[in-house]
């Protein structure tokens, strides 16, 4: 059973245009409070970004839902996430696909995320510490790549690891809007 706080957030996300019920179900299934500092647990189900340490934040649920929705995932989708952070977005993805690969540049965050994911019995995730802009060549190609931190430009290594027909979703700049670009036949980029 979904708590009132979770249900209120889901209704708010629907009102903001989130339509994919599988994405909303994944958000309801993942306990966001497990991915933030105890001092902020009372704000876990508010539609806001929250600090997770190391100068990083957990994205607001709307951004998590919107970026995930844009990926057009199926259970068989091969997904690469750049910026594991707390592991929250990773957990959402793990509820939607068979396997998720995630790269985090801050070693401490990568270890904490790995621990949280194991505690939640999410064993369909591979994480590694490294330069996310380089992707994970050994696991490529990917049907979907999601970047949770804004790069100065679209990383060419990520484009090279995107399979034909694949979708890349990444934030660019301070605006929270997404624009679609067709990078090559069959590939889409949302930024």
Q: Mind summarizing the main beta sheet?
A: 7 strands, mixed
Count of helical stretches: 6
> CATH superfamily name?
Vaccinia Virus protein VP39
* CATH class category label: Alpha Beta
Q: How large a portion of the residues is in β-strands, by DSSP E?
A: 15-25%
- Roughly how many Å is the radius of gyration? 15 Å
The total beta strand count reads: 9
Distance between the termini: 35 Å
CATH-defined architecture: 3-Layer(aba) Sandwich
Enzyme class: transferase
Catalytic activity: [protein]-L-isoaspartate + S-adenosyl-L-methionine = [protein]-L-isoaspartate alpha-methyl ester + S-adenosyl-L-homocysteine
GO cellular component, one term: cytoplasm
Active site: 59
């Amino acid at each position: 059973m979904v708590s009132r706080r979770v249900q209120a957030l889901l209704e708010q996300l629907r009102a903001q245009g989130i339509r994919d019920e599988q994405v909303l179900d994944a958000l309801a299934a993942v306990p966001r409070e497990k991915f933030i500092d105890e001092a902020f647990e009372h704000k876990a189900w508010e539609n806001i970004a929250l600090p997770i340490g190391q100068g990083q934040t957990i994205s607001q649920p709307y951004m998590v839902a919107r970026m995930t929705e844009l990926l057009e995932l199926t259970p068989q989708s091969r997904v690469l996430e750049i910026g594991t952070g707390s592991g929250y977005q990773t957990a959402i993805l793990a509820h939607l696909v068979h396997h998720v690969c995630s790269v985090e540049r801050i070693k401490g965050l990568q270890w904490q995320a790995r621990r949280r994911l194991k505690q939640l019995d999410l064993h369909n995730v591979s994480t590694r510490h490294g330069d996310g802009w380089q992707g994970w060549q050994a696991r490529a190609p990917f049907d979907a790549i999601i970047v949770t931190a804004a790069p100065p430009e679209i990383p060419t290594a990520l484009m090279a690891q995107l399979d034909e027909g694949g979708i890349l979703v990444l934030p660019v700049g301070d605006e929270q809007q997404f624009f679609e670009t067709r990078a090559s036949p069959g590939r889409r980029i949302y930024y």
